[in-house]
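ok so i was messing around last nite and threw this chain in just to see what happens. nothing serious, just curious
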Amino acid sequence: MISDMPIIEESFDSLALLSAETGLGLDWNLVFTLPPWMRAIWQNFGTGANLFLRSVRQNNQVLGIAPLQIRQGTASLIGTVDVCDYQDFITVPGREREFYQAIIDELLERKINRLHLETIRADSTIVTHLMPLAQERGFKVEYHKSDVSSDMQLPADWNDYLTILESKQRHELKRKMRNLNEAVVTNYRTVEVKDDLLSATEDFLKLFPESRGDKARFMTSAMQMYFRSLAAALADTGILRYGSLELNGQPIAMVMYFDYLDNYYLYNSAYDPVYRSLSVGIISKALCIKDGIEKGKQRFDFLKGPEVYKSHLGGGEFPVYSCEITF
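result:
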């Protein structure tokens, strides 16, 4: 530990206070690193691990936060690949090197000999600062592509969006939306009020297992508890949203997403298989994109996974990495 940079033990409550202090300069650029999210992750998936929440400070200034969990001598960020799409440490831009020096020294002092880090973007501070520092200090660093994600910049209006789609996909989307409008009268609405969000979560959990067999296998009782915990944790933040495509007031397709820092993050989706032939699943996603455009959002992130619909709706694919550092 660097003597003039004390390592402070934190709690989820103290992290919530730090995240609310905008003047600290901490870069909370990932929705998955927000304290209420990490609390829900820890409560549902933290069994068997020791919580290691630490901040590095210098002259009472916070340089960064390490939201870690420890299992059998290995430290990892709080999260799991099944429910966290991007992960990183929380740092003050320009102070990353000092922060990571102090954290590495603290881990070494505690005999923690490995950092296992997953779902990392190439622009994360892990890649740009931690990995070079670890290599400089002679530690073994393994880094490889583990998945892909997709996103796109949102244009000024819906017509501009349609023009960026490939000709075939633009025609297909228009055809699907026309077929739906001719078959039934539907309404798409955004759910964002706290009490409505909790009710919409139950609607979403009812639809989810019906969508596909793999979704039913994913949505175990433990995973349902996590989704309820996450919705309850985020309901007060103004971040959680549901887009609901409804017929006669009942949802036939839903998207669960996050509105954070002028970006939409499509977290998951579900639909009633009775209406599969009307492509309500893909249409609900397109309407979520349309909503983001109309509200002036800057970017639409489809999040992790190689699903083909993402490129059909305009997403550009990029790699996501895993990193292991052995001390």
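not much to say yet. The longest helix spans residues 194-211.
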